[in-house]
């Protein structure tokens, strides 16, 4: 969905490096999420945010941090990347309101991260 | 949120109806059934959701049993582009909004 963009789309880095993945959305949604996906597995929730002042840990937050700089932007950081953080990372947004589609999550195209 | 059970994979001939089952025997009264799909390495895409009544939209139909312990997603005329992993999720609508994805069903549409 072009309304949710992620940068970079691909990144190769080395163990110990700090990495930031960025997510932007033009849907006007309050809620944003970061997921990771490993080969053959479903998506797992890392962090989520219900508004600019709200940050919550998901299933697998260890080794990650996030920043909600504005309603439209939600960044995921790996302070010191390690090889087992090699995965596909997805950002998502949702609208908690009265629209017909609320609670539906809209996903970005993903960032493929490789940690050597 | 209640857990779901789906077959790991299914095949369906192109042009036929694809029926994807999901068991959610511990579903609570206020939990909805949601379906998403993920086409190879793309972001998941919402398909449909329902509480207890059957639902239909332009993509699919959702049939929920009367006891709500299972449901079936129906793609009425499957095409090759419907090849994807399909996730059945149960969650409370209007609460914390998290989605916990399982492994889903890998649907192969055969030409």
Can you walk through the features of this model?
The complex is a heterodimer of chains A (116) and B (111). Chain A has strands at residues 4-7, 10-13, 19-25, 31-37, 43-49, 56-57, 65-70, 73-78, 87-94, 105-107, 111-115. Chain A is mostly beta strands. Chain A is 0% helix and 51% strand. The N and C termini of chain A lie far apart (30 Å). In chain A, the strands form two sheets. In chain A, strands 2, 4, 5, 6, 9, 10 and 11 form a seven-stranded mixed sheet that branches. A four-stranded antiparallel sheet of chain A has the order 1-3-8-7, with no helix packed on it. Chain B is mostly beta strands and 111 residues long. In chain B, 0% of the residues lie in helices and 47% in strands. Chain B has strands at 9-13, 18-23, 31-38, 45-50, 55-56, 61-64, 70-75, 84-92, 105-110. Chain B is globular and about 40 Å long. Classes of the chains: A mainly beta (116), B mainly beta (111).
Which class of secondary structure composition applies to the elements of chain B? mainly beta
User: Roughly how much helix do the residues of chain A carry, as a percent range?
Assistant: under 10%
Mean pLDDT across every amino acid position of chain B: 91
Terminal CA distance of chain B reads: 37 Å
Largest sheet of chain A: 7 strands, mixed
| Structural class determined from secondary elements of chain A | mainly beta
Order of helices and strands of chain B: EEEEEEEEE
- Low-pLDDT ranges of chain A: none
The shape of chain B is: globular
Order of helices and strands of chain A: EEEEEEEEEEE
Helix content of chain B: under 10%
Query: What portion of the residues of chain A fall into strands of 2 or more residues?
Result: over 45%
Strand order of the largest sheet of chain B: 1-9-8-3-4
Number of helices of chain A: 0
Low-confidence stretches of chain B: none
**Count of individual beta strands of chain A:** 11
List keywords for this structure.
heterodimer, A: 116 residues, seven-stranded mixed sheet, four-stranded antiparallel sheet, B: 111 residues, mainly beta
């Amino acid at each position: 969905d072009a309304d949710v963009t992620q940068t970079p789309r691909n990144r190769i880095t080395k163990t110990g490096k700090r990495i930031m993945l960025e997510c932007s959305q033009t849907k006007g949604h309050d809620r944003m999420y970061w997921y990771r996906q490993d080969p053959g597995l479903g998506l797992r929730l890392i962090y989520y945010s219900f508004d600019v002042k709200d940050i919550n840990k998901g299933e697998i937050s260890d080794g990650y941090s996030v920043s909600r700089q504005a309603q439209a932007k939600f960044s995921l950081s790996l302070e010191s990347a390690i090889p087992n953080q090699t995965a596909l990372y997805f950002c998502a947004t949702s609208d908690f309101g009265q629209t017909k589609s609320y609670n539906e999550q809209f996903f970005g195209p993903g960032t493929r991260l490789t940690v050597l | 949120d209640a857990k779901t059970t789906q077959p790991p994979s299914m095949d369906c001939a192109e042009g036929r109806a694809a029926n994807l089952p999901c068991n959610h025997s511990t579903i609570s009264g206020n939990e909805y059934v949601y379906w998403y799909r993920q086409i190879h390495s793309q972001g998941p895409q919402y398909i449909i959701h329902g509480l207890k009544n059957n639902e239909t939209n332009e993509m699919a139909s959702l049939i929920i049993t009367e006891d709500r312990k299972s449901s079936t997603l129906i793609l009425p005329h499957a095409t090759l582009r419907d090849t994807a992993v399909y996730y059945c999720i149960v969650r409370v609508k209007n609460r914390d909004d998290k989605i916990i994805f399982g492994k889903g069903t890998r649907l192969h549409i055969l030409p």
